From TrEMBL:
InterPro entries in alphabetical order: Arylamine_N-AcTrfase, Arylamine_NAT_domain_sf, Papain-like_cys_pep_sf
Organism: Blautia caecimuris
Organism classification: Bacteria, Bacillati, Bacillota, Clostridia, Lachnospirales
A single MF term (Gene Ontology): N-hydroxyarylamine O-acetyltransferase activity
Pfam families the UniProt entry points to: Acetyltransf_2
Domain of life, source organism: Bacteria
Family stated for the protein in its record: Belongs to the arylamine N-acetyltransferase family.
Documented EC number(s): 2.3.1.118
Name the UniProt record assigns to this protein: N-hydroxyarylamine O-acetyltransferase
Segments crossing the lipid bilayer: none
Keywords: Acyltransferase, Transferase
EC class of the enzyme, as a word: transferase
Amino acid sequence: MLEESFEQLDQEQCAAYLKRLKLPQEECTLEFLDRLIRRHLEEIPFENLDLVRTHELISTDLDTVYKKIIQGKRGGYCFELNALFLGLLRGLGYQAYPVACRVLRRPGLRMPTHRASVVCADGKKYFCDVGYGGFACVRAALMEPGVVTHTDFGSFYFERECAGWLNFWHKGEKNREKSGIKIFMVAEFPSAPVDFAPANQAMCSPGAMFYDKVVVHRMTEYGPLSVEGNQVTLREKEGKKIVTLSSGEELREVLKKEFKIEVI
């Protein structure tokens, strides 16, 4: 019953999805999983443009999200992106399920306001997330406390919080002397897609972090390219550059040039 509720795309939809990612279909290996995650973060941006524009509840229905992101060539936020990605994983043949995450970047314990996916392979579980902006983990992370997953943008690892929950940490390679940053508390058990409805409602309500301010992220080979409000953070070989936007027209130009998103 629970597994029957998980998102899953059909063969035709998976083919269109892979075309959007500019990847050929391959066997369901861990290596291909890493390529899917990295390419997804590079090609399909995290963005909350519809919420800021309309202040209406974002639909996380799989067909709606597929039409918006794959056919409409848009991005989305975590409840859209990770629902769609889970549909791709299961459609391709991976054994995968959705998990709830508590965001820990702010003080206090909050309700689970993020969703990600877990892939089961070779008797082990791997955490996969294509719906978190910033320095996201660009590959599947082994969900075993103490095991480090190395990436171009730092190391990621899990530590035990309590029974059923693991804390997910990030440590930047340039800050080896400093402690890591605790990002999420991740459930070890699957959730049904309907379980995320209250969190989606909360994140689409006045006062929520994505309700009023435009937030757009896309990973590049030099790190995350982002728009937050009227500030654009560009990352190039020479380093980071911050540009302040002065009009809606400038924002539209940045969205089109850097994120391949065209909005009216």
